[in-house]
UniProtKB/TrEMBL annotation:
Keywords: ATP-binding, Cell membrane, Membrane, Nucleotide-binding, Transport. The keyword ATP-binding applies. It is found in: Cell membrane. Residues 21-272 form the ABC transporter domain. This is Oligopeptide transport system ATP-binding protein. Belongs to the ABC transporter superfamily.
Amino acid sequence: MKKTSTSVLPAGGALGDEPLLAVDDLHVEFVTRQGVVKAVNGVSYSLNPGETLAVLGESGSGKSVTAQAIMGILDMPPARIPRGEVRFRGTDLLRLPEDARSQVRGQRVAMIFQDALSALNPVFTVGSQIGEMFRVHRGASRRDAEKKAVELMDRVRIPGARQRVHDYPHQFSGGMRQRIMIAMSIALDPEVLIADEPTTALDVTVQAQIMELLAELQRESNMGLILITHDLGVVADVADKIAVMYGGRIVENALVHDIYRAPAHPYTKGLLDSIPRVDQKGQELYAIKGMPPNLLAMPSGCAFHPRCPYRQDNCVTEAPPLYEIGPTRSSACHYWREVLDGSHG
């Protein structure tokens, strides 16, 4: 893959046992008039080349804020990162000067944003916006940049790319706009791609097509993919492992098949139980009771305890650590054994 390397980051293969991307004990806070919002509280996860990590959680769980911290696009202030590391190929991105960080952003670590219509500029053609990546980062001429834009539109399967390269965002459907966003994100052959709710507001058929496209692009380039979503149904066929977030922290980490077979945290179990199933036709859908926590006033002990059917007295007073319950999984629940066994709740 063609890359523009920086003086501070090594190119090429993985560095020994170091993963491609490692988030370690990341904390992100927002200073507001009401107080300090602790949006991310000690998040850790890793990603290897060719691997897909799904980061799952409700709105406000901290999954998108974590991604923005990785990309270096948080507004600081009001945001601040009091603790943690984001290592790309062994180098902590949080400690890089902004000029070095900007060479990583987009070129080696890229992001697809949730709302394609808002992310695209309505007054420039899609070809101009895709081509800008090559003009800014590669010094390409307008003609060469447009040629590259057509190639990328073909690669993400936009019909009639040569004719449509001069169209504007509003002239495309929601699914096609998302393909344009994907084309922009892969333009410079990134090694890590973060997709933030890439199928939100798309119908089910188009969702499947977008997920299939991302999987195909990943196979071609062996890039690491972080898929941020609130929908467990979207990740079953594409993810290798899942990190479930709640209240700004990871509450369960596991290989995808382990989570679907036997969740080890009550919140994950609730998410799985709320997925509509064909064999439950006519029955009332399960819903997790209550509301996500207020990040300005987090509950004592385990943040999930007000909504948890497995709650015991110590859950109210003692925040559970992330228990290692196997070689590839962990759970932040005092009663993870009972959840795994399904013995009560």
